[in-house]
Amino acid sequence: MTQDELKRAVAQAAVAYVVPHLDTGAVIGVGTGSTADLFIDALAPHGARLAGAVASSERSAKRLAGHGIRIVELNEVDTLPVYIDGADEIDGSFAMIKGGGGALTREKIVAAVARQFVCIADASKKVAVLGRFPLPVEVIPMARAYVARQLTALGGAPKLREGFITDNGNLILDVHGLSITDPVGMETRINQIAGVVTNGLFAARGADVLLLGTEQGVVESRRP
Ligand code: 5RP
User: Considering only CA atoms, which of 55, 190, 76 is closest in space to residue 135?
Assistant: First the structure.
């Protein structure tokens, strides 16, 4: 199977996590990226029975709206029963690197509000140790050089994502060369650097459920 087929399979499987919330008035959270795009497409046939969705990016909001799914602002809801999103890497404790699509800050906010985080990923995303995928860090533009120096001091090699501005008007530094054996510690440390909006480690609030697309089918597991 191709990577796209694996992504499509997990996207379809994730619809089962939305079905209990159809016709209930509940609003769900929807992530960003190519896997999330496929999930949005799989959700489309159920859109009329869904009260709405909070999107983690302008890109996803546009795609949801294109399928006639109502977009809800996060400030309009107290809670989301479920948030469904992809990941760039996920480890054995369900900590993740996210933000390959640059939507990490809004993703982290929506995930914080959700009661359940369902990660949808093809098998290539499952790793023993996070860090081979460069860690995205969203940075206030005036702090770019300072934050880059601090990230270098932590042992990484930050690289500006050229020509990219986040939905929040900020920059992304992609940090290469990290081997992240303490994801919660690293997430906390990087977030303490002045000028960092957030970083792409989702460890303090990791995934609750993983739907992993493998050659043997979609493997469903819960956070250990
Ligand atoms: C976007 C993300 C995505 O979830 C992550 O990059 C995975 O993307 P894809 O589904 O395209 O592989 O965090 O900011």
Answer: 190
